[in-house]
Amino acid sequence: xxxxxxxxxVDIFRAIVKFGTVTAAAAALGSSQPTITRELLxxxxxxxxxxxxxxxxxxxxxxxxLKLYHAIEEAYSGLDKINSSLHRMRAAYGEILQIxxxxxxxxxxxxxxxxxxxxxxxGLTVEIDNGDPRNQxxxxxxxxxxxxxxxxxxxxxxxxIRLGTFRQVCLIPAGHPxxxxxxxxxxxxxxxxxxxxxxxxxxxxxxxxxxxxxxGVTRRMxxxxxxxxxxxxxxxxxxxxxILNPLTALGYLGEKAVLRAFGPAPGFVVxxxxxxxRPWVDSAGRLAGHLKTICAExxxxxxxxxxx
Length: 308
Description:
This protein is about 45% helix and about 20% strand. The chain is an alpha/beta fold. The chain folds into 3 domains: about 5-90, Arc Repressor Mutant, subunit A; about 95-165 and about 270-305, D-Maltodextrin-Binding Protein, domain 2 (3-Layer(aba) Sandwich), CATH 3.40.190.10; about 170-265, 3-Layer(aba) Sandwich (D-Maltodextrin-Binding Protein, domain 2), CATH 3.40.190. Strands 4-3-5-12-6 form a 5-stranded mixed β-sheet. A 3-stranded antiparallel β-sheet has the order 10-7-11. Strands 1-2 form a two-stranded antiparallel sheet. Strand 1 (about 50-55) and strand 2 (about 60) form a beta hairpin. This is LysR family transcriptional regulator. InterPro entries: LysR_HTH_N, LysR_subst-bd, WH-like_DNA-bd_sf, WH_DNA-bd_sf. It holds the Pfam family HTH_1. Keywords: DNA-binding, Transcription, Transcription regulation. GO terms for molecular function: DNA-binding transcription factor activity; sequence-specific DNA binding.
């Protein structure tokens, strides 16, 4: 049985593939050309097959060598991530808070919450990943201190903190026929209206579709967006109306768009997740507190607009 490669041999092989000549590889490794040549011969003896074709004073990796090189690069990619994480930790003045959040909260809740947190802990470094924290698991490894999701969640691997409970609202272009009136809008009010919808796999899109279909209400859908913020931008430009979470919608209330209540509006819950096996960092608890406060402030604002 032939021996495994050692790290020195891996470095030599990688350098030769990258630079194409023994001389260039030797210079990159701080070694000499005769030494690298000897090591290359030993390397090919170790692996048991030819690694390079010698053509016109250059070394061209064989098909097997390229497969080996790709496997090595994958390993180095993991090492690069480790070193990158280490460099960030060294550069941070204080604690590092890692947040995984749905994109809509990265644009609505988080900016204000992080701003308040930074005033309390100016040396804090916050790293935000726009991904669904529920897609992570104990097997793949949780990579967040706080995760932000919409809806309920029940999993023994995570602690769930309810931040706020709301109802979805209608965002309507200013001057639109549905923009004025008293009381909440009904399903029938949307008959033949241009409606900016979220993507076909969005859970709230599915709920709304079932509601409208059950009442036989037909909407026109000139635009379908994956992003709640993108849907609001479309509404501001007069393309249509939409129904979505109030935290995002409040950011677009103004001269170009108005908010109205929707009678059968689905509930909207904002929750924070914390992996139970991950130690609590002080800033995570503080952030959760600020998020709760901001959600409470949003509820008060919605109450003042008769949208609860």
